[in-house]
Amino acid sequence: MDAATIRLLDPSRQKLVLEAASGLSETYLNRGPIDAEAGVLAALEGTPIAISDAADDSRVNYPEAARQEGIQSILVTPIPIRGKINGILRLLTRARREFTPLEIEFVAALAEQCGIAIEHAQIYDEQQRQQPKVSAASLLYPFRYSGKPSAC
């Protein structure tokens, strides 16, 4: 693989937002929205899509941008988090290739691991946001339960 992107659905679940990219130019990344690409739509429904000739495949919305970037093949897989598709992982190659079923299955498993890592990162971020509130609450309620019955 020569390049990769991770796009996650925004809170409205209507638009994909680029969260991470490697191996691609800014020009290619800013070519326009890919939300309506047939391959992306299929992946958002849960089906991995392998495109062996990105420049001549009708499922690619910007074939000229792929050609200029040197992208030959694309594998698009859903990123599930707790059973819901929350984005896509795209792997791109500069050499034309036919993805084997085993490769597609492996990348789908990798995308599931991405979903787990993303969920953990989201939980961590939420905990970091909540920490000041927890600290403030501990100042208001300094008493701690010791586990021993009170002697009232």
Question: Can you offer a commentary on this structure?
Answer:
The protein contains four helices and five strands. The protein has 152 residues and is an alpha+beta fold. It has one domain (3-131): 2-Layer Sandwich (Beta-Lactamase). The protein has a five-stranded antiparallel β-sheet, with helices on both faces. Strand 1 (3-9) and strand 2 (16-22) form a beta hairpin. The termini are far apart. The model has no long low-confidence stretch (mean pLDDT 88).
Task: Please outline the helices and strands.
Elements: E1 3-9, E2 16-22, H1 26-29, H2 38-44, E3 49-51, H3 63-69, E4 73-81, E5 84-93, H4 101-140
Antiparallel strand pairs: 1-2, 1-5, 3-4, 4-5
Descriptive terms for the model:
five-stranded antiparallel β-sheet, Beta-Lactamase, 152 residues, alpha+beta, single chain, elongated
Q: Biggest sheet: strands side by side, in what order?
A: 2-1-5-4-3
Instruction: Report the CATH topology name.
Output: Beta-Lactamase
The CATH homologous superfamily is termed GAF domain
Largest sheet: 5 strands, antiparallel
The percentage of residues in β strands lies in 15-25%
Q: What is the alpha-carbon Rg in Å? A: 22 Å
Report the principal-axis shape: elongated
CATH top level? Alpha Beta
Task: Offer a concise description of the structure.
The chain has 152 residues and is of the alpha+beta class.
